[in-house]
Design a protein that fits this description.
The complex is a heterodimer of chains A (about 120) and B (about 110). Chain A has strands at about 5, 10-15, 20-25, 30-35, 45-50, 55, 65-70, 75-80, 90-95, 105, 110-115. Chain A is mostly beta strands and about 120 residues long. In chain A, the strands form two sheets. In chain A, strands 2, 4, 5, 6, 9, 10 and 11 form a seven-stranded mixed sheet that branches. A four-stranded antiparallel sheet of chain A has the order 1-3-8-7, with no helix packed on it. Chain A is globular and about 40 Å long. With about 110 residues, chain B is mainly beta. Chain B has no helices and twelve strands. Chain B has strands spanning about 5, 10-15, 20, 25, 30-40, 45-50, 55-60, 60-65, 75, 85-95, 100-105, 105-110. The radius of gyration of chain B is 13 Å and the shape is globular. Classes of the chains: A mainly beta (about 120), B mainly beta (about 110). Chains A and B meet through strand 4, strand 5, strand 9 and strand 10 of A and strand 5, strand 6, strand 10 and strand 11 of B.
């Protein structure tokens, strides 16, 4: 069990540039979630996938944000035309499903984005 | 919608002191409850969990009991160590919210020698 991995761990970019983050979930997990965490706050839900289907997007996810999970394995989160307000830690988590004992999500180490 | 409220921090304690961090929640249905810990510059680590009313989660000397009647999940430890210094997040997840996690704002704990 290698856990959830995210790449890169840190990204510094200039305002207006596009960035893409990758998340590799635990292999047998069919649910994958993206969260954003700003300084001094708890993580906030952005979007989630069941297999390759994106089932829900938060209103926090503006049109500049897009996420994919081709083939139901890894996922990417892209931010276009980055703004300074996008600076945050982006967390990915995966889980097995909705059975009551399996609401537990396993979190990756996060990608810290800094927009200059 | 679901929400989690944590006691406001930061919390500063001396080593070997007793720790309580309060957490209350509102949720649809019967969620699972979690405490996560985050060390500086790192991701979230699950500390403990409870999946139904009256369950007690425990790990590394930390405990929390799922109290449905008071909708609470307070974190306790009898004797804290300097290495426990971190940010602690209370969270819930359940069918009523499609398995998404809802987090509190976190409580920063500093333990002084």
């Amino acid at each position: 069990d290698t856990g959830v991995s995210q790449d890169p761990r840190h990204k510094i970019t200039k305002r207006g540039q596009n960035v893409t983050f990758r998340c590799d979930p635990i292999s047998e997990h069919n649910r994958l979630y993206w969260y954003r965490q700003t300084l001094g706050q708890g993580p906030e839900f952005l979007t989630y996938f069941q297999n390759e289907a994106q089932l829900e997007k938060s209103r926090l996810l503006s049109d500049r944000f897009s996420a994919e999970r081709p083939k139901g394995s890894f996922s990417t989160l892209e931010i276009q035309r980055t703004e300074q307000g996008d600076s945050a830690m982006y967390l990915c988590a995966s889980s097995l499903g909705l059975d009551s004992d399996q609401f537990q999500q396993f979190f990756g180490p996060g990608t810290r984005l800094t927009v200059l | 919608g679901d929400s989690v409220t944590q006691m406001e921090g930061p919390v500063t304690l001396s080593e070997e002191a007793f720790l309580t961090i309060n957490c209350t929640y509102t949720a649809t249905g019967y969620p699972s409850l979690f405490w996560y810990v985050q060390y500086p510059g790192e991701g979230l680590q699950l500390l403990l969990k409870a999946t139904k009313a009256d369950d007690k989660g425990s790990n590394k000397g930390f405990e929390a009991t799922y109290r449905k009647e008071t909708t609470s999940f307070h974190l306790e430890k009898g004797s804290v160590q300097v290495s426990d210094s971190a940010v602690y997040f209370c969270a819930l997840s359940g069918l009523g919210n499609a398995g998404k996690s809802t987090f509190g704002d976190g409580t920063t704990l500093t333990v002084k020698p």
